[in-house]
């Protein structure tokens, strides 16, 4: 069960936890130790690992660039304070992958991996969510701001972090952890996962409280979860071309469906 489902912590408490446990430094991880593991992979395995890491990197950069809109639109002071720690952590996650490409993979055009199945959800559509928050904020309409924030949180924390990323963590574990390879990459993933557990807990709590106060917003959230669920097979197909690590496509797809279902339950629209 996810942190969002089990954590009763307030935004202020999550902020305090972030101060104590979120201060890891990507530069202090001896990333280059993974280079020999990379050199032993087959070409197909390299491509499979590169693709997933590139998508994670592009996603981390995108959420870092977008989160300022969410902070600006957040009316609750404690939640705004917590979101400042989230921005810091998202930038740090992007830094980790940047350093990893530099020290292990070498120069890679990560943007080339943003195929349509992922470009929208990670970049273009997420950017549009942030801009919608900005327009609603400037309009002065509380109703429009609530809609934009709820849709934005569903997309960012519900889909990107609560669907794609958490499934990706398991993908890494199946691909690398089960083989005892790439320990420094897995170390970074573990630290990122801990940070994003807080983001997810806060995001689902925000949605749950908003929907409880304004039940008419639930339909917007359900529709977005439904439309994104329909895209799971195509997105799974992308990250399984190639599949030289021999992972189970059905297992990963089933996991993705279960995470989306869990997010809907956590925010009260299941």
Helical percentage: over 70%
Low-pLDDT runs:
1-6
Number of strands: 0
Number of helices: 11
| Nearest-integer average pLDDT | 96
- Span between termini: 16 Å
The domain tally reads: 1
Reported for the largest beta sheet, the result is:
none
Principal-axis shape equals globular
Structural class: mainly alpha
Characteristics:
270 residues, Ribonucleotide Reductase, subunit A, 11 helices, 77% helix, disordered N terminus
Task: Please describe what this structure looks like.
- This protein is an all-alpha fold.
- It has one domain (3-267): Ribonucleotide Reductase, subunit A (Orthogonal Bundle).
- Helices cover 77% and strands 0% of the residues.
- The chain is built from 11 helices and no strands.
- It has helices spanning 3-6, 11-21, 35-39, 43-73, 77-105, 116-139, 142-175, 183-213, 218-229, 232-239, 249-267.
- α4 (43-73) packs antiparallel against α7 (142-175) and α7 (142-175) runs parallel beside α9 (218-229).
- The radius of gyration is 18 Å and the shape is globular.
- The model is unreliable at 1-6 (pLDDT under 50).
Entry summary:
The chain has about 270 residues and is mostly helical. The chain is built from eleven helices and no strands.
């Amino acid at each position: 069960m996810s942190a969002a489902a089990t954590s009763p912590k307030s935004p202020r408490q999550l902020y305090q936890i972030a101060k104590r446990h979120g201060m890891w430094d990507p530069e202090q991880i001896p990333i280059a130790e993974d280079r020999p593991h990379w050199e032993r992979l087959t070409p197909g395995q390299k491509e499979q690992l590169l693709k997933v890491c590139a998508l994670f990197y592009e996603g981390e950069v995108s959420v870092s660039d977008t989160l300022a809109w969410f902070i600006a639109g957040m009316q609750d002071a404690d939640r705004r304070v917590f979101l400042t720690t989230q921005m810091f952590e998202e930038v740090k996650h992007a830094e980790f992958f940047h350093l990893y490409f530099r020290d292990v993979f070498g120069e890679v055009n990560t943007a080339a991996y943003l195929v349509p199945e992922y470009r929208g959800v990670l970049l273009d559509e997420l950017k549009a969510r942030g801009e919608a928050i900005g327009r609603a904020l400037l309009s002065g309409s509380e109703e429009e701001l609530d809609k934009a924030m709820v849709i934005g949180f569903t997309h960012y924390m519900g889909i990107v972090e609560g669907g794609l990323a958490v499934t990706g963590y398991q993908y890494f574990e199946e691909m690398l952890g089960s083989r005892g390879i790439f320990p420094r990459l897995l170390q970074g993933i573990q630290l990122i996962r801990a940070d994003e557990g807080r983001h997810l807990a806060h995001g689902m709590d925000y949605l749950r409280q908003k929907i409880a106060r304004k039940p008419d917003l639930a339909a917007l959230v359900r529709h977005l979860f439904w439309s994104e669920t329909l895209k799971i097979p195509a997105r799974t197909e992308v990250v399984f071309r190639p599949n030289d690590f021999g992972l189970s496509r059905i297992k990963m797809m089933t996991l993705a469906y279960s995470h989306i279902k869990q997010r809907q339950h956590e925010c009260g629209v299941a």
